[in-house]
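chain and backbone:
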Amino acid sequence: MKPRSSFLPFLLIFCLLSPAFPSAYQNRPKLIVVIIIDQFRADYLERYYDRFGEGGFRLLMDHGANFSDCHYDYANTHTAPGHATLFTGAYSDGHGIGGNEWWDPALRKVVTSVEDSRYQTLKPGGSNETGVSPHNLLADTIGDELRLATAGKSRVFGISFKDRAAVLPAGYSGNAAYWIDHDDGGWETSSYYMKSLPQWVVSFVASGPTKKYLNREWNGADGSVLDTTAPATNAAGQPVGFYDLVGKTPFANDYEFDFAKELIRQEKLGGGPTTDLLSISLSANDILGHRVGPDSPKMAAMAVALDRQFADFFAFLQQQLGKENVWVALSADHGIAPVVEQAQAIHVPASRLDSAGMAQQINLKLAQRFPQFTGGPRCLRPEDARRTHRENTPDFVAAMSWPIAYLCKDDFDALKIGEAEAEQMVGDVFKLTAGLRAAYTRAQLTAGDVPQSSYGQQYLHSRAEYGGWYVIGELAPFVVGTASGTDHSTSYNYDTHVPLAFYGAPFKPGTYRSHSEPVDMVATFSALLGIERPSHSIGRVLTEALAPQR
């Protein structure tokens, strides 16, 4: 039967008025901005809500989709794994990044998660520093899938104070990742991305943008001076670099947002035929948080300052592109433990461990078991400054990246001891020396031999491919491995609980109490954009927060 002619105008009007499903292929949205606050606990949003103004955090909390029960389901809560997890949608057993650094058995040294000797650092005036790349990632990112889907038309950038926090989010195919020189604060990148810095970056650095953040006072709401960026020297009498001097103040976030705005303008992000992606990782919270902990008035002041900075940046995005053309996501790479002394004051059983000397303690105890061992350590080079014990003492633990102990395979080979036995041996001594609740060996994790519990699952997700033989220690709650301040690196809620919030046309405003994980972010974005998920993505699409599409 032919449709009635009166139905056709109605059908046409219906099609014109119905919202089209967003798709990266049709430049919907024009730009996605993912903001990661390095070391930002989820409870900060509730704790300081009454001190936030309109347009900053409240834009996401009151007018966006805010998931209040978001937790990492792994134990290695560090910067590099966190950023890799957020953008691959996988944990360390999928993306391969187990820590910020690890022992490289072939090179016989500790390497960072992104260093790559095949490339050089690019900065104004030149550099002889080793470059970086995402070559250690074993999974692709949402940015990679976005560029694959659009034949490279979508553009992907990552920026941070830290190289790892810029490089890993940008993925394999990112157009560029930018971070700062720790000494002078100038922006730099790697020859992995390009042959030379874009002229706009050179001009930005040459304009002296760091100067306005030096010799400044950071004042609290009552006018008191919380900190200063006046020139200073460290314990060795050396000048404190820009990273440490400015990084522990809100001025660091101002500086990052200055650069982000310039990048958006100069690269014309959001102006192409397909969706673009920008990752901004704000490092100031982490630099300050390690020193003062989560309950310091300084940390509260940092959050309130960041709220104002967000409001300014969101207004910039709206002016540049229109709020209907931008999606924003907010999360963090990890939380932080309370400062030990503050916890002890209210009778919480917190304590400190000597993580710096832990490897030597384990080596000396194991050396007593093998008096026949001769020839000295086989994993340390003669020039290694860490050789503070007897020259003929074996170096069974070649390095520590707290709380992971990396073994010297060569020393155990000399004793004809295999991996499983060697790791178990080190694990037993590590557990006894540090008072650990448990010690998980690489052999155990590879075999899936862990307790059938939520904690066991977290350690399975922490298994990484790099570092050779290793043992991961499970600390008791509220135990940190630093001599002062505090740290993160555990499976406990204070380290795993982070924000996850979205703002944009597809998201229904509200606070969602359903459980979520950081891996859900890319699963949700991939579904909305109509592209494939990253290769190892295990998250779920957060359908409860999505507005219905016709």
Q: What stands out?
A: The CA atoms of residues 404 and 472 lie 4 Å apart. The domain at 32-335+497-545 is CATH 3.40.720.10 (Alkaline Phosphatase, subunit A).
